[in-house]
Design goal:
The chain is of the alpha+beta class. It is built from 10 helices and 13 strands. It starts with a helix and ends with a helix. The protein binds adenosine-5'-diphosphate and magnesium ion. Residues 107, 236-237, 250 line the site of magnesium ion.
Length: 298
Amino acid sequence: MFMSSVDIAVRALRQLEAEDIKVLAKIEVDMSRHRYVPERDILMMSGLAEKEIRYRLEKLNGLGLIHRWVGSYIGYVLSTAGYDCLALNALVKMGVLESLGKPLGVGKEADVYDGLTAGGERVAVKFHRLGRISFRQTRRFRGYLLDRRHVSWLYQSRLAAEKEMEALRLVHPCGVSVPKPIGHNRHVVVMGMIEGDCLFKFKEIPNPEAVLNEILENVRLAYLKSRVIHGDLSEFNIILTPSNHILIIDWPQFVRADHPNAEDILKRDVWNIIKFFRRKHGVIRDLQEALDYMKRPL
Ligand SMILES: Nc1ncnc2c1ncn2[C@@H]1O[C@H](COP(=O)(O)OP(=O)(O)O)[C@@H](O)[C@H]1O
Ligand SMILES: [Mg+2]
């Protein structure tokens, strides 16, 4: 049976003790300096006896949270599941997350699961996955390149989560229709759960003109009030709710309104939406008119 890295992480988390987390965290930190974190460095970490650390490494390796590498020396790296484990453990400790449920969407750059907060609120838990490289690619990239890429999946995924959280915190208080930001750790963002489906999935929608207007209103509100431009707006990043309202999701590539290419990025966002409504729902809207509307003071 196929187990996703989140499945592996959730299962492992129940069996982890504080010392295991310490060893994982040590490897995480040292991965910024090493392609494979030397075993001898881990064995020297403070607070734990060498014998105990050896036992923990064996356990973590068996659970699939780290990979052991044997070359000119013995080293370890975190697996995706190991990184998921560190983030989930922190979110639980922070009192943000209580449990994790089913996958809501598994995309190219993120895996999204439903979950519950300690207060019983249903949330969406988004694991950012950037710089994921396939086995085939791994074989193609050797030496230095693999080196750089190896560290960068940790770094890029964390950066994407931080940026998405930043965007949600900027636009949500301004009344832009987005999931509520709830918490964040490492490469994971916890946000309000939305009922509904991505816009591209609907063959027909009840009042497409009103839906288009609502999208443009929200793009304008984000732009004028939060000074934020989505940057990857399309029918794939808009959710239509059962009551025919929209929410805009997936914000890690947002830019500020004072970005040097802000105008072009805004134009591209608006054009993507207008084009989609023309092609799929027969709603004709003039691009320049929509752009003028974006600039008209609130
Ligand atoms: N807050 C949310 N509530 C419910 N479902 C969500 C939420 N955020 C994302 N999803 C689901 O997960 C999918 C992927 O999310 P998205 O943020 O677009 O990530 P990416 O496109 O980078 O994989 C969405 O298409 C949607 O089905
Ligand atoms: Mg998306």
